[in-house]
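Colleagues,

For the teaching module next term, I've prepared a clean inverse folding example: a structure given as tokens, and then the sequence designed for it. I'd like students to try predicting residues themselves before seeing the answer, so please don't circulate the second half yet.
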């Protein structure tokens, strides 16, 4: 029986907090954040003791039209440097690269020439071989790497065991348990975390958790998986992220007992930047339509369309989901 690691009052040196506001939150506004917003969030994260800040995606400019998105969909080196300079802080810079949606062999400089520290490789479980190829390439360039296996709640046990074995044989540093659909509960989130940890610990890997808040459980699942040994924790300011959003950074920083984490700077940022962003019409967060897709363990795309159309016929929508289940 896996034991909990530490206790509610303890400080664990292995814990790392990653801010994904620009990357996951960018899915709510096509990555159109002002330069001031991103710069102030960068400063806030440093003051708050955050360990990694994810700036966005390294998406392919052949697959995606640059005019349709803000700059953080593509995370060009010069755009990141315009905010962080040489990043003389202790906080590390991360970007995400989706398998099949990036040009990783042309868009990444050697780590020694880049201000980026970590590349998070995102894939579905059937894409693990391609993810491993990317991870090895990026590792050889000198980057820290993670593999974020999306939609793991729909993968079967054999698939997951094979995927974890392949990743444990790779150069990846962190393997992420990702609750893409916000369908996990603390019980099965912790069971999955134990599976990841059992595989990772034999090969010297760390495990991370990225939650979605479809059932108001992103924070609960984050601290539950943390309690069994997951150490890389994703969160966003006010939970800003695709659909129902993510674990709220203010909840996580308020929970962690390490004195390096500080809530006050984040609260100031929320007052000055997050509240006006929400008031401007950018939409994210828990709502019934996201609860339905979370309970049914399916992608929230239909709920996102429901939200975009300003619908409130929840009963009809729920029936339509059940009809197509």
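(Answer key — instructors only)
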């Amino acid at each position: 029986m896996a034991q909990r690691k530490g206790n509610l009052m303890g400080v664990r040196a292995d814990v790392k907090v990653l801010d994904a506001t620009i990357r996951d939150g960018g899915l709510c506004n096509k990555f159109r954040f002002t330069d001031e917003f991103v710069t102030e969030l960068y400063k806030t994260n440093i003051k708050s003791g955050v360990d990694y800040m994810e700036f966005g995606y390294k998406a392919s400019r052949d697959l995606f039209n640059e005019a349709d998105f803000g700059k953080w969909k593509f995370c060009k080196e010069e755009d990141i440097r315009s905010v962080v300079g040489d990043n003389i802080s202790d906080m590390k810079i991360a970007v995400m690269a989706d398998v099949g949606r990036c040009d990783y062999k042309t868009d990444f400089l050697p780590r020694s020439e880049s201000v980026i520290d970590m590349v998070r490789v995102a894939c579905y479980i059937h894409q693990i071989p391609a993810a491993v190829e990317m991870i090895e390439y990026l590792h050889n360039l000198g980057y820290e790497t993670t593999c974020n296996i999306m939609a793991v709640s729909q993968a079967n046990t054999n698939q997951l065991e094979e995927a974890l074995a392949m990743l444990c044989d790779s150069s990846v540093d962190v393997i992420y348990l990702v609750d893409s659909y916000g369908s996990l509960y603390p019980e099965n989130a912790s069971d999955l975390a134990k599976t990841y940890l059992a595989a990772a610990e034999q090969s010297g890997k760390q495990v991370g958790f990225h939650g979605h808040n479809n059932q108001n459980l992103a924070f609960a699942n984050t601290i539950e998986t943390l309690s069994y040994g997951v150490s890389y924790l994703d969160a966003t300011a006010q939970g800003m992220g695709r659909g129902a959003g993510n674990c709220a950074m203010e909840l996580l920083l308020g929970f962690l007992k390490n004195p390096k984490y500080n809530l006050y700077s984040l609260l100031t940022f929320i007052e000055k930047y997050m509240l006006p962003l929400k008031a401007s019409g950018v939409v994210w967060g828990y709502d019934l339509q996201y609860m339905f897709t979370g309970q049914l363990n399916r992608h929230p795309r239909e709920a996102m369309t429901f939200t975009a159309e300003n619908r409130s016929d929840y009963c009809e929508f729920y029936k339509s989901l059940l009809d197509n289940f």
